[in-house]
């Protein structure tokens, strides 16, 4: 019963997160003047691509959206609503950033749990969380022909790593999933929101071949 | 016997389609000044990439070209011939557009049939058709560093969706595959050619962050 | 025992190669001003992406880095050291080119051996070698938003094809793996270094739509 509580929490956050990711992806598609079909496809790839890449790399079949095709409908529907109500969206920028951060930490812990259930080593559990949390945005940027934001800005991947690491540490320390999941979610979310608020950045590596 | 007729038709159209896709991909590679090896690789990825992505996402192994390596030779050979005979190609632009449309609808129905054979739900059957029909061109555009055309122009993905949907509806209505396949092929092809002829477009979603 | 000698040689070259690929990938990430996390991710994708793509396409699970997570640590560590010691790197340009060539031929033969162990046909064995040798660099270029170098410059993919082909021919001629592996490695390496030294290039296919 206890396990079900944290699973239910994660599932709820997952549904919120795929809708939020679909909406921000639709805005990215709109910046590239894509048509409505392109908007829907970019939204599905962004919202469900991280989990799909994880499952393909780990050989974890069938993929989430193959088992739950309704998620494709949810993300495509959210994307179309976003395109229709675009004038409203700019005012919701802060809400999107919050929901995107919720998605990042929720996706991360879901990805960790998938790898844990496959009995994979700790480092792969962390990587599985990072792929689930971050790869959708990378796929969006590649399809929109941008250098992925992940590699250049903000502590996105680092938040995912910290969230996954804390979750595993708390389990290791003897906490139940029902305690470890919400704690890791809250700390990860706080870390992400602080990074956004204070514009925390990692050091960059700037290299020029004409360096002397 | 009856089933074999539509299977044979699809297989013939499939072979025509991978050759046509290889030829148009070679022209795209030529626009980027790629060398002959690059031309062959882009051709194979474009012609066989949609089916490969579908099989990887659905866990449907072995992939088509692993079972039929001769398809790799066909696509690479067609690409090299295109590079050698490039001056002729411009005159064949209409023929290429026709063959590309044939490929789109044939790939779509083949993708639907793969998912049907795996007993997947209807929505995944449609998605499987769309991935098979459209993803090769997306991979080509990503490798050539373009924003995928699919997301911006023409009714490509929509034609795939309509073709797959009609095919499933006709089967649902009690038609045999031997009747449903050619009907869906012809309607899908007509839809695509009309969209090209009259430059039908979907509404676009144009979003700028400086919108006020 | 004899087989183990060539396996040990390949394994040693593999470890050298993933470190070298990680270091050149880190420099590519530095040219795009990526942060340290981005540098690590690009390094892992470049060094391990070719083998991963091969395994996903062939359905060969689990992937190398899932079985050996220490490789992820090695590549990420090498990438960070490169970022820290960047001023030294420019002097090592020749060494990097040499190690990259070692990686290309070693990855190629490892990829051939994976497909051989799966009893796949000769053409797929060659393709498996080429994917293992070349795809990491393509993924790096796509993530850095460049047209992949592979398709435009140098005899990279051709060297991979020649190395794999020679390896298979030597086995066919009755040589043991212990003889065929080092011979193919040396010839492939020499071919690559000569191509670099004398700037050998394949003919390019240059196509413009306004050609008349």
From TrEMBL, chains A, B, C:
The organism's place on the tree of life at top rank: Bacteria
Family listed: Belongs to the UPF0126 family.
UniProt keyword Transmembrane helix present: yes
Record's keyword terms, sorted: Cell membrane, Membrane, Transmembrane, Transmembrane helix
Residues that span the membrane, as ranges: 12-29, 36-59, 71-88, 95-116, 122-143, 155-173, 179-198
Entry membrane topology: Multi-pass membrane protein
Cross-referenced InterPro entries: Gly_transporter
GO CC annotation: plasma membrane
One protein family per Pfam: Gly_transporter
Keyword Membrane: yes
Domain Glycine transporter: 13-85, 98-170
Localization (cell): Cell membrane
Protein name: Glycine transporter domain-containing protein
């Amino acid at each position: 019963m206890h396990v079900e509580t944290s699973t239910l929490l994660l599932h709820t956050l997952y549904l919120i997160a795929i809708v939020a990711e679909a909406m921000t992806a639709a805005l990215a598609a709109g910046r590239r003047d894509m048509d409505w079909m392109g908007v829907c496809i970019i939204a599905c790839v962004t919202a469900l691509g991280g989990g799909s890449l994880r499952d393909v790399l780990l050989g974890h079949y069938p993929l989430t959206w193959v088992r739950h095709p309704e998620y494709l409908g949810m993300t495509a529907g959210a994307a179309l609503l976003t395109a229709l109500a675009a004038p409203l969206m700019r005012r919701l920028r802060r809400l999107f950033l919050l929901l995107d951060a919720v998605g990042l930490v929720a996706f991360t812990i879901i990805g960790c749990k998938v790898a844990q259930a496959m009995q994979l080593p700790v480092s792969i559990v962390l990587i599985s969380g990072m792929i689930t949390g971050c790869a959708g945005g990378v796929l969006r940027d590649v399809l929109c022909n941008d250098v992925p934001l992940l590699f250049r800005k903000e502590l996105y991947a680092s938040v995912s790593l910290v969230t996954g690491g804390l979750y595993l540490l708390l389990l290791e320390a003897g906490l139940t999933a029902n305690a470890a999941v919400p704690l890791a979610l809250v700390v990860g979310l706080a870390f992400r929101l602080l990074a956004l608020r204070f514009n925390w950045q990692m050091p960059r590596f700037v290299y020029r071949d004409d360096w002397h």
